[in-house]
Amino acid sequence: MKRALITGGTSVLGEAMCRELAGQGTARYRPRLRPDRGGRAACAANPPRRRLGGAISCDLTDVTSTATAPDSVLGEGVPQIIVHNAGTHADAPLAGMSERQWRDVLDVPLTGFYAITRPLLLPMIATRWGRIVAISSVSGVIGNRGQVN
Predict the structure, then answer these.
(1) Which domains, from first to last, does the chain contain?
(2) pTM score, two decimals?
């Protein structure tokens, strides 16, 4: 059985990916972006359709703590599919944007990708099969008002 780790798995797009992978018999794991910001409740409200996989807790913007988060997943088998779908927004004009708003929006997709993928990369390579998909916001290509970050 293949295993997939999907960040942003409780979003509309992430939930659709989880359902599709479940239909293919793939176990899914969803790291909760910020356990302290309601991610735990969101995962509980949107459980996987089939009881394969589950959720793990980590702050994707914290490389040190995220490095050990996949350990519980590795005990059940190596994820061979990583989909980095996590993202966030903190709309504000640049002149009024705080450093925290700037860092939050950039750290989730960039640092988060590094933090969750790096500890799984060598175990995935050892299985001799894998797929890594990083999803970006259209705001990275076409600017939106208040979303310079």
Answers:
(1) 3-140 (3.40.50.720)
(2) 0.81
